[in-house]
Amino acid sequence: MSKITLGSVKPKLSFWQIWNMNFGFFGIQFSFGLQQSNMSAIYKYLGAVESELPLLWLAGPVTGLIIQPIIGAVSDGTWSPKFGRRKPFFLIGAILASVALIFMPFSQSIWMAAGLLWILDAGNNIALEPYRAFVSDKLEEEQHSLGFLMQSFLTGLASTIANFTPAILITFGVFALTDTMENGIPVSTYWAFFIGSFASISTVLYSVITTPEYPPSDEELAKMKAEKAKGNAISRTYNDIIEAIKDMPLTMKQLIPVKFFTWYAMFCYWQYLTSALSLSLFDTLDEQTAGFKQAQVLTGQMNGTYNIFCFLLAFALVPLAIKIGAKGVHFFSLVLGGIGLLMIPYLSITDVLFSLPNPFGEGSVSIYSLYLYTIGLGVAWASMLAMPYQLLAGSIPKDKTGVYMGIFNVFIVVPMIIQIFSMQFFVYDLLGQNPVNVIRLAGIFLILGGVFTLFIKERKNMEVKVG
User: Fold this and answer.
1) For residues 73, 79, 83 and 89, what is the CA-based torsion angle, rounded to 10 degrees?
2) What is the DSSP code string of 373-432?
3) CATH number of the structural domain spanning residue 383
4) pLDDT tens for residues 35-59?
5) Fewest Cβ atoms closer than 10 Å to its Cβ: which of 82, 99, 434, 452?
6) What is the pTM of this model?
7) Is residue 84 included in any domain, yes or no?
């Protein structure tokens, strides 16, 4: 029996093998879930105002812009019989993220929190990009949908738990809503970040231990050695990135406007949801009021709920993608998500849709109309985390998977950087300095992203496999 290599026909993996290889994604996304729901509130507790929030979120997109293409190119040209190709980067990233998560709630100033966010996002980005390439490394093309949607499922599950953790701690009476640390940050937030730190390192370790990597073929190893002989690692990495950009597949180019509108929209949503809920539901933007603190808890609950729909619906998108294609699924999903965001200002926490028995005690849990928008956003989020990568994976050269996945992340972080500076310096003013209008803009942009999906012409990579 011939040795299985990256370039050979790979065996079909079982559901649990795919689960094991992707389980570290849970920890990475737990970390992202915590920052999405809590960083704006943490900045406000430390003295920031709404107009300053976009710039304070700069760490994520900038670290992604710099780190992911570099890590992708470096990991493509890396192989160690002992440590593998992608797994060392998972582990280094998880360690950095775990340390930053532990220290974040102890921030004494806005800039300390911002600095820790840079470390946190650097760690997450080091681990994230190789995970995207890992799917292409380990799975044949017919299993790509399952591999990427498994990551969507774990993203939804991790973000759900991360977002609900503060609310659960308060509901169980472990801490009160008003229990705060000396810097004003709620104690429940600290414990959520501590739990996230444990999740980040432990789940990545599980994947590293349980999942072997396929080695490069003899031809690929010879090519790596030849590339290394051409120059130092820095110039080689730079040349790999530039060459990949010049030879970018058509499908990848056509995804640029789709990614622009969707990720501009999501950054608007994450930055301003707490303030938008505080203003629309409690008529205040004062972080010292009970209304604002309740809005922060609601933000976690809403984000947790849309992630519930994300992981519940992720696998349902697999047969749908087979039937109507990844492009059709993505269009439908983004339009549904945009409609959901546009509904937010018209929903409330006073209109009860129905009640459920309380699984943790007496009485019942009321489900308010506000929860309605999370259905559409959950569908959109599941698709955003999987369908573009499926469209991309079939069109890129197999030996350049890492660098192309890293460059593809630029289509995520550049819209975020544009959002930060445009929102900071003129868009927020154009929207009447009203966070509710920012959420409306996010809804419109998700719909536009769906429309641009219809213009994609899929092209398959015709490279002949070797090995």
Assistant:
1) 0
2) HHHHHHHHHHHHTTHHHHHHHTTS-GGGHHHHHHHHHHHHHHHHHHHHHHIIIIIHHHTT
3) 1.20.1250.20
4) 878 888 899 889 888 878 888 888 7
5) 82
6) 0.73
7) yes
